[in-house]
Amino acid sequence: MRERTRSVIENQRFQQFIVVVILINAATLGMETFPAMIDRWGTVLHVVDHAALYIFVAELLAKVYVYRWRFLRDPWNIFDAIIVGIALAPASGGLSVLRALRILRALRLLSVVPSLRKVVSALLRAMPGMSSIIVLLSLVLYVAAVMSTKLYGESAPDYFGSLPTSLFTLFQTMTGEAWPDIAREVMAVHPSAWIFFVIFILVCSFVVLNLFMAVVVSAMDEESAAELAELEETTEASTEMIMFELKALRTELAELREHMSVRSTD
Questions:
Q1: Which of 36, 91, 182, 248 is packed most tightly, with the most Cβ within 10 A?
Q2: Cα dihedral 132→134→137→143 (10° resolution)
């Protein structure tokens, strides 16, 4: 029974079915944000939502039945259990905020679709390198915020009147949102302020942020290399097993021929 259940939950068609259920559930949760949809199809959406939840619970129970304690060794299984557990929590009273968290079930696509799993694994692998870049970016922002507060705090208090305000303004500038308007207002009093803004944008947007991309791409390459190495190890093991079986088969054939020759001689 356990092997039959394993063959079902590991079947590609079953995985595709789960993907379809996740997508339908995500669509119904999105439709619940429209009052007109609630008024007309509220009961249907409610039924579909509960049916999807029951399917997810059944899937998790099947995995626990098949894998037993090995279920906890896979981080993706724990991730799925947390997502489904949030959906099972009562959404009334002080926990009514959990109703909005039902949409987290759409994140189950990360654990079901292999390509998405690969991307997430690469991002997690890149976290150590990204932490150093975050420290560097924070240092650049802090230094620039102190400088801009002292240089332009009096002429543009709305943008650089205090250190927290300067930090927010520079973060906005780093994202490229309306920074020309900020720069023009400052340059009306300080014509040379463009030098500060150009250098800051070059350092943050074209150097530090590109480092993020480089680290992520490198991590994805490492993830692909690790998967390739694992595939090669599996292939080598399979080849060795096949060669061993062929050798044993040849030995048996040789013994059988020898036995047949002895009988024919007798």
A1: 182
A2: -90
Report pLDDT digits (tens) over 91-125: 555 555 666 677 777 777 777 777 777 777 777 77
Domain extents for the chain? 2-111, 125-220
Give the chain's end-to-end CA distance (angstroms, integer). 52
Rg over alpha carbons for the chain, rounded to the nearest Å, is 30
Q: How many residues does the chain have?
A: 266
**DSSP secondary structure of 70-122:** GGGG-HHHHHHHHHHHHHHS--SGGGGGGGGGGGGGGGGHHHHSHHHHHHHHH
Q: Is the dihedral of CA 7, 9, 13, 15 positive or negative?
A: negative
Evaluate whether 80 touches 105 at the Cβ level (below 8 Å): no
Name the pTM for this structure: 0.60
The token duo for 249 is 């088969």
CATH number of 2-111: 1.20.120.350
Question: What does the alpha-carbon distance between residue 70 and residue 203 come to, in Å, rounded to a whole number?
Answer: 47
Longest dimension (CA), the chain: 116
DSSP string, 105-118: GGGGHHHHSHHHHH
How many angstroms from the chain centroid is the CA of residue 187?
Answer: 43
Residue 236 burial (CB < 10 Å; 0-12/13-18/19+)?
A: exposed
Average pLDDT on 228-255 reads 71
CATH topology of domain 125-220: Helix Hairpins (1.10.287)
Side-chain half-sphere CA neighbours of 149 within 13 A: 14
Alpha carbon of residue 54 to chain centroid: 24
**Tell me: the pLDDT tens digits for 123-176?**
777 777 777 778 888 888 999 999 999 999 888 888 998 999 999 999 988 887
